[in-house]
Amino acid sequence: MRGALLVGGATSDAGKSMIVTGLCRVLARRGVRVAPFKAQNMSNNSAITPDGGEIGRAQALQAFACGLEPSTRFNPVLLKPGSDRRSHVVVRGKPDGQIAAADYASRRAQLLDVVTDELASLREDFDVVICEGAGSIAEINLRGSDIANMGLARAAAMPVVVVSDIDRGGSLAHLFGTTAVLGAADQRLVAGYLINKFRGDPGLLAPGLDQVRELTGRPTFGVVPYASGIWIDAEDSLSVSVGRRVGPVDDDGRQVRLGVAAIRLPRISNSTDVEALACEPGVDVTWVDDASAVAAADIVILPGTRATVSDLAWLRSRGIDGALRTRAERGRPIIGICGGFQMLARTISDDVESGIGRVEGLGLLDMSIRFDADKITRQVTGQASTSVGRVPIRGYEIHHGRVDHGTDDPWITQGEDLIGEGAVRGAVRGTHWHGLLENDAFRRDVLAALAAEAGKPDFAVCTDTSVAAIRTAQVDLIADLLTAHVDLDALFGLIDAGAPASASIITHSLIH
User: Domain CobB/CobQ-like glutamine amidotransferase: where (predicted)?
Assistant: First the structure.
């Protein structure tokens, strides 16, 4: 098998990332040399490659499903929103300035060569490349400068499968309308459809799929059922909704449970940091945005953000700063990660990200933060002291901020020279390291300390939870779902055959 396939969406958040992850895993388990690809991603949930490049977190998970290390080749263009109208641009893993939304159309035309060259290179090195589109493939107002959906499919002569989330309603209309609004040349590349998150009796849906085939001339390759156990790294921080429980909900009958409140900052980044805690039995993690929830929780996570100073002002406007100070005074645990760590400082000097200059931080840690124009992006390793001795740890950094440490103890030590990283003052902890809580032995030790500080010393920490094993089980679960509910032979036949030689063209005369 050799070729490529683009998995596009009828809407944003239709399940493209999940489908690509599952297809990559199915092919890898069959011994096919497969790689993921997303030409352009807009996300503040990012990962760091071994060489220090930055890519979308979803593409790092897809690489994991393929048995590969993350690489900038899999996501050559990454946009990180800093405000509603401006984004930071990352090209081939490295910062490449900022751009306003209105100006990006001209910039995308220049980036088309970047993404098509990278895709062509991957197709030479791998048997199959499974590409993920961005948003909806029917954003016709952006079609002229598109480099991630039909523009990419046309440039690379790839067949396209469109995914629709039926749980939201209107799925059949989405499939028809998405295809119908495309130009004829784009329509010819649309080979068929996938329905995602279906609940109920497939027999009731079948007549609708038959009618969609009559109207469009295209088959539905599968109906993937809704599965509550599916839990993968979120690509878009906007999908992190207030009140949403993080991770699978377990009810193991424990009498003592820990409630974790993760503050849903407006420009949250790397929201996946909190998910390692949600892997633990008896730990309930929920996204919140109000002071009362922050006050009531056993543990509070102040996560990363793409706009530290602006989100700090938002936090103050909602009275959450006062709730955090009260927690600190009462010795109740708070963890700040990256931007959230920076907010805990005495002062923040930012002439880079916000351009505001010096502002007062929350003052819960004895340090100052200074933003530097050079961005730190790297994987990191180190050691940490735990109740069972020193244990190895690893993580990654993505930040402009530099720390001027004061009198607080470091949270972890880094490298052979044991340089301190992060800070601890009482029950307040902070670090620039993302992924720190994914280190199993370290997380268990921290969780035991947090439970005691929260007034729940009887909480029993699980001794065998493995985040890596849970992540492996998740990608295998997705692959198993697709194997059971998708016509993979037909889908993979598209990869071998390439773009359809001929396909039905929907004209407006079909719409009465």
Answer: 260-441
